[in-house]
What does this fold into?
Amino acid sequence: MKKDFRKNLENMLRAGFACIWVQTFEEERALKVIHEVCKKLQGKLHVWDCLGQVSIYDDVQNSADKKIEDPVLLFPQFVSDFGDKAVLAILDFWTFIEQPSVIRSIKNNLNLLRKDGKVAIFVGPRLTLPAELDKDITVLDFPLPQREELKGYLDFVVESAVEGSGVEIKVGDETKDKLVDGALGLTSQESEDAFSFAIAKNSKLNGDSVQSVLDMKSQTLRKDGMLEYLQVEENMESIGGLDNLKHWLVRRKRAFGQAARAFGLPNPKGILLVGISGCGKSLTAKACASNWEIPLVRFDVGRVFNKLMGESEGNIRKVIQIAETMAPCVLWIDEAEKGLSGTKASGELDSGVTARVVGTILTWMQEKTAPVFVIATANDVSKLPPELLRKGRFDEIFFVDLPNEEERSEIVKIQLKKRNRELGEMEMKKIVEASKDYTGAEIEQAVIAGLYECFEEKERKLTANDVVNAIKSFIPLSTTMQREIDELRDWGIVQGRARNASLKVRQIPSFLGSGAPKARTFTFKKQEEKIEEKVEDGKETE
It folds into this structure.
């Protein structure tokens, strides 16, 4: 990725681009690469910051050269006072670029820059492009460190630690690879800090050091709230039922390896899990990452949006960059309908920001080549944009229904086993029968509630009646959300728009067999009543 950035930047400088925006948190690392490209093209790199200092960037140091304190005068002076083929890296400019006088100053000098072969490169993490300059500035994303660079940072940290302590630190090749994999998605400074933290905590680098790096990575990704690195213990045995879905996932465990590429298989794109809340969609995402032995990253789409102009679009590019750097990985978009809805009214409510962000996500999902497997979960399919459901975004769409009898039996066994409990066959049957039309999450809570009763009664042994009484004490989701569940089944099963996650299909209510859920029948009857009223009043009607 770094080679691609370097080549793209070189081609843009050769082509005479006047303004480029390099989006990155790694200011010094980006300046070093820009300087290398300038040196290759026999150009000189200057650096301006918000203090008004202009320095010449070279291999040894940044020496003071000029002082331009007024951002309005920056571009005119760049045109008049700097030599041909000069490149000016501009830092901290997001605070000034929305000022009308600054915008006009840039636009007035663009043609003069092109004429003299000069290039202005904005460097910084905040992409705040006003609409007036949107077509004049080209955006380049600076890539995060890849494996080879991270190995160099690890070697540097180890050497520094040895020099400081005088104690030799041995790192095996396998441990080194795991440490580097754990640091993927971090900046150069963040990775060095994580490696240093691991050494300081363990006084050596071993298996425990890998966990220390992962802990630091989790804290780092949690800062902006968009991505969260999850360490999971769940596996396929943690899921009761959903055999169709589990079989599909297990058959693709080796799909990210080189053997699959040599066999002619593309990287799997992802799956959309639509269905009833509490029936195992989120658990499947965790179990999938655990089974495939790759990182799981949860993506909160709502956190992408920012009130500052251009920040939302910049955030989504950052998310994609981190996900592709961590690849192969599972990117989990939980409750996707909440983050990806609202594109139709986006132009009226937020100047099209939501539409652009969602469009970027959909385009990336369609065209991505990096081994990032997207698992999106949704409870309300009606709020999802239609473009998300078409072929090409996902490999498959699965419908997750309420557990059938066999699946409820598996769920009860799993929940009892997690808590070191066991019941006889007849007692198990009582719980399974009592939990008909209950979700897996509700069954789990019933087991926990039963254990609380046993604990309070002198910590006696759990019985089936404890769980059954707990089940009968609350109203299931299938009752409170009956109409919504029926409409989901109509969309997924009756209309055949999704593949059933379970091997055994539940019995479909008779009114859904015609393809018309209750809500639609009710609306139609209301319309008929209104028509009859109009006829009685002597009014014209169609």
Summary: The radius of gyration is 29 Å.
